[in-house]
Write a structure and sequence with these properties.
This protein has a 5-stranded parallel beta sheet with strand order 2-1-3-4-5, sandwiched between helices. The chain has a 4-stranded antiparallel beta sheet with strand order 6-7-8-9, with no helix packed on it. It contains 8 helices and 12 strands. Helix 5 packs across helix 6, helix 6 crosses helix 7 and helix 6 packs across helix 8. About 4% of the residues have low confidence. A hairpin with a 4-residue loop joins strand 7 and strand 8. The protein is globular, with a radius of gyration of 17 Å. It has 2 domains: 121 residues, Response regulator (Rossmann fold, 3-Layer(aba) Sandwich), CATH 3.40.50.2300; 91 residues, Winged helix-like DNA-binding domain superfamily/Winged helix DNA-binding domain (Arc Repressor Mutant, subunit A), CATH 1.10.10.10. By secondary structure, the chain is of the alpha/beta class. Helices cover 43% and strands 22% of the residues.
C-alpha cells in the first residue's frame, strides 16, 4: 500500500483550516495544519511534506513571502490559496515559486485533485530511470538523479514544476514543443490550468538559469537549443 501523501496546510482562518483538513484527509492525504508562516517553517525544519497548501492573505508573513522562503531551500510543490484571481496576483504567486493556485471559494475535490496532480508529477520525475543522470547546455548543468541544477557553477533553486519543465525541454531538445504539450507533460490532465502558466514558468526558468537557450516559437511554443 502506498503511503498517504503528507500535506502542509498553512491557513489563518480556523474554519477554513479545519474544513480543508477534513476534506483532504477524506481524499487520502495526511494533513499537518498550522495557522501562520513561522509555524510552517518550524514544521518544515522537522518534517518535510510532500506538498504545501499556502493561503496568500495571512497576517504577518503572507503566503507570497512564505513561498519564497520555502522555495529558497526546498523543492516540494506549493499550491497557493487566494481570494484574488487577477492575472497580476496569479503571476506574483507563480513568480514566488508556487506550482499552482486555487481561487477561494474552492471545491474540496478540485483542491484534492490538484494536489494529487502536483505530487504525482514530482513522483514521476523521480522514477524516470532511462534518462541520463547529468546533462548540460551552455553554462547550465542538470543532475537529474540529485535534482540539482547549476548555472555558471552556482546552484539554482528550482520549484518542482520548474524542474519538471526543464526536464521536458531537455528530453525534447532541438524540437519545438507546443504549450499544450508542455501543459500535459508537466501539469498532467489539468483542464483548469491556463496556457499562460506555461509562459510564466518558462520566463521564470529563463531568468533563473540566465540563459537564452530556451527559444520562443511565436504562436506555438518553445524549443531548447542545447548545442
Amino acid at each position: 500500500m502506498q503511503p498517504r501523501p503528507h500535506v502542509l496546510l498553512v491557513e489563518d482562518d480556523d474554519d477554513v483550516r479545519l474544513t480543508t483538513s477534513l476534506v483532504l484527509e477524506a481524499h487520502g492525504f495526511t494533513v499537518s495544519a498550522v495557522e501562520d508562516g513561522q509555524s510552517a517553517l518550524g514544521l518544515i525544519s522537522r518534517t518535510v511534506p510532500d506538498v504545501a497548501v499556502v493561503d496568500v492573505a495571512m497576517p504577518g508573513m503572507d503566503g507570497i513571502r512564505l513561498t519564497r522562503l520555502i522555495r529558497a531551500g526546498f523543492g516540494f510543490p506549493i499550491v497557493l490559496l487566494t481570494a484574488r484571481d487577477l492575472p497580476s496576483d496569479v503571476i506574483a504567486g507563480l513568480d514566488a515559486g508556487a506550482d499552482d493556485y486555487v481561487t477561494k471559494p474552492f471545491d474540496g475535490e478540485v483542491l484534492a485533485a490538484r494536489l494529487r496532480a502536483v505530487v504525482r508529477g514530482r513522483s514521476g520525475a523521480d522514477v524516470r530511470e532511462h534518462r541520463l543522470a547529468t546533462e548540460a547546455f551552455g553554462d547550465v548543468v542538470v543532475d537529474r538523479a540529485a535534482h540539482v541544477v547549476t548555472a555558471l557553477g552556482d546552484v539554482v533553486a528550482l520549484s518542482a514544476t520548474e524542474f519538471r519543465l526543464l526536464e521536458y525541454l531537455l528530453d525534447n531538445a532541438g524540437h519545438v514543443v507546443s504549450r499544450t504539450q508542455i501543459l500535459q507533460a508537466v501539469w498532467g490532465e489539468a483542464d483548469w490550468i491556463d496556457e499562460r502558466v506555461v509562459d510564466t514558468n518558462v520566463a521564470r526558468l529563463r531568468a533563473k538559469l540566465a540563459t537564452d537557450a530556451i527559444k520562443t516559437i511565436r504562436g506555438f511554443g518553445y524549443k531548447l537549443v542545447a548545442g
